[in-house]
Specification:
Rossmann fold, seven-stranded antiparallel sheet, 18 helices, 25% strand
């Protein structure tokens, strides 16, 4: 059988972290004397949503202060940088670029522009399915783009709008685009949070300090700055924050809710609540469902850290099998490192994950992970656990087989790179060299996330990566967005 191979300059990182990657996280503070400092902390809490670049824009009187760069939040901002970001309003962004492009300087967010109506800044999590189409139309009208991001389409459309208010101009621009977006935007007087009509990506509203407000991709960032959670921004809702307080608008046609189900499987931090559901609780219930569907007669349950831990806990409790940390993660591995010679076999996984033979030797092991993408990492982990002395290795995956890429803001391989897209579960089992391999069913996933209250499609989740059912179609029957410009 034909199996995916990994080679070239991206091979090392693929071997280390063969997962889907969230594209970015957004955060904003309105009406606080230390706005930039709080945004910095908020981005720290959202670092898991993007590790390639970070940026903050603050507003002081009529001026926008900007600092953006490649790297992790701690590397991008110094105390001197933060001191320059003056003002009581600020927004921030952490980014992981989409497949095929790196976070070049021109693609750093928040995006800033000067318009006839003043300066604006915008931070976007998601992907516009008609972004290329709209970009070509705008270029034909004379617009000149400075980046390859579809976010810039929104900026150009807003700049062309004849609406009198910033909120009105942003509304008009977003009515012309389709796809996934959680946006935090700002001008000199207003901060705006808006979520696409399907609600693909999460966004929450909070309060901080004496009359200040927060917009964030996840609630975990509110906890860090001791902000009060107010509520989720609803799908299709725009909240406008200014000196008059918070106003809510629903300017778009109502659509079926389609929150990304992978937020609960992998993307969100376990200590966040997404649309009213605690992620940690959901992942433990996923483990319960996985144990109900695919029990194993084994000696120990071991998670693949860190994302597999809550589901493995649930699996172990349900099956009454001991839970052990049989694989230890090195938390100090950066996104890039010097590649040694191939004389060190499988260094790509071992530099991040290492098996503990005292927990594994002579035992039948259940390995619990959240997904299999290309299968390269799973194969190496199984072999590593066998080398540590396991008698049998049974792999349980806390989501259905990933058969289709995501086009709504998640960095995923092409379909031909997804192992489950072209191989049966038995073929996948042989490839990763496990004694058995089982995946959670889609119904089991829905049942777990909803707490058993409402299994099935009525939950309002996007499951396109498992089902191939895409809620938002692409122009002219395309199955994926067109490539804009090749990054250098």
């Amino acid at each position: 059988m034909t199996l995916p191979l990994t080679s070239g300059k991206y091979a090392v990182q693929t071997l280390i972290d063969d997962h889907f990657r969230e594209e970015c996280g957004v955060f904003g503070i309105y009406g606080h004397p230390e706005a930039a400092n709080l945004v910095y902390l908020g981005l720290y809490a959202l670092q898991h949503r993007g590790q390639e670049s970070a940026g903050i824009v603050s507003v002081e009187d009529q001026f926008l202060h900007v600092h953006r760069s490649k790297g992790l939040v701690a590397d991008v901002f110094s105390r001197k940088d933060l001191n320059r970001l003056k003002g009581e309003n600020a927004i921030g962004h952490v980014r992981y670029s989409t497949s095929g492009g790196s976070a070049s300087q021109r693609n750093l967010q928040p995006l800033v522009a000067d318009t006839i109506n003043g300066g604006i800044a915008i931070a976007h999590n998601g992907n516009l399915s008609n972004g290329v189409e709209m970009r070509r139309q705008l270029e034909a009208r004379g617009s000149i783009f400075q980046s390859t991001m579809d976010t810039e389409v929104v900026v150009h459309l807003a700049a062309l709008s004849r609406e009198k208010t910033y909120a009105g101009r942003l509304m008009e621009s977003l009515r012309q685009v389709r796809g996934a977006y959680a946006i935090v935007a700002m001008n000199q007087h207003n901060m705006i949070g808006v979520r696409d009509p399907h609600g693909f990506r999460p966004l929450v509203l909070g309060k901080v300090g004496d009359g200040g407000y927060v917009l964030s991709s996840e609630t975990c960032a509110l906890n860090l700055i001791e902000a009060e959670f107010v509520r989720d921004v609803e799908p299709g809702e725009m909240v406008v924050i200014n000196k008059d307080g918070v106003k809510s608008y629903f300017p778009f046609e109502k659509e079926e809710r389609q929150l990304c189900i992978f937020e609960y499987v992998y993307f969100a931090r376990p200590d966040s609540d997404i649309d009213g559901v605690n992620v940690y609780d959901a992942r433990k219930r996923i483990g319960f469902s996985l144990a109900d569907e695919h029990p194993v007669n084994a000696d120990v349950v071991i998670p693949v850290p860190d994302s597999g831990v809550p589901a493995a806990l649930g699996f172990a409790q349900k099956c009454n099998i001991p839970f052990e940390l049989g694989i230890i993660r090195n938390h100090y591995v950066g996104r890039t490192f010097i590649e040694p010679h191939q004389s060190i076999r499988h260094f790509g996984v071992k530099i991040k994950l290492n098996a503990n033979p005292e927990v594994i030797r002579g035992r039948n092991v259940v390995l619990v992970d959240d997904s299999i993408v290309r299968g390269t990492t799973s194969r190496k982990i199984v072999k590593m656990v066998r080398a540590a002395g396991a008698k049998e290795v049974h792999v349980r995956i806390s989501s259905p087989p990933t058969t289709h890429p995501c086009y709504y803001g998640i960095d995923t391989p092409t379909r031909k790179e997804l192992l489950a897209a072209s191989h049966s579960i038995e073929e996948m089992r042989k490839y990763i060299t496990a004694d058995s391999l089982s995946f959670l069913t889609l119904d089991g996933l829905y049942n777990a996330v909803s707490g058993g209250k409402s299994p099935g499609k009525c939950n309002g989740f996007c499951d396109a990566c498992f089902s191939g059912s895409y809620p938002v179609l692409f122009p002219q029957g395309q199955s994926a967005p067109l490539t804009l410009l090749k990054e250098s």
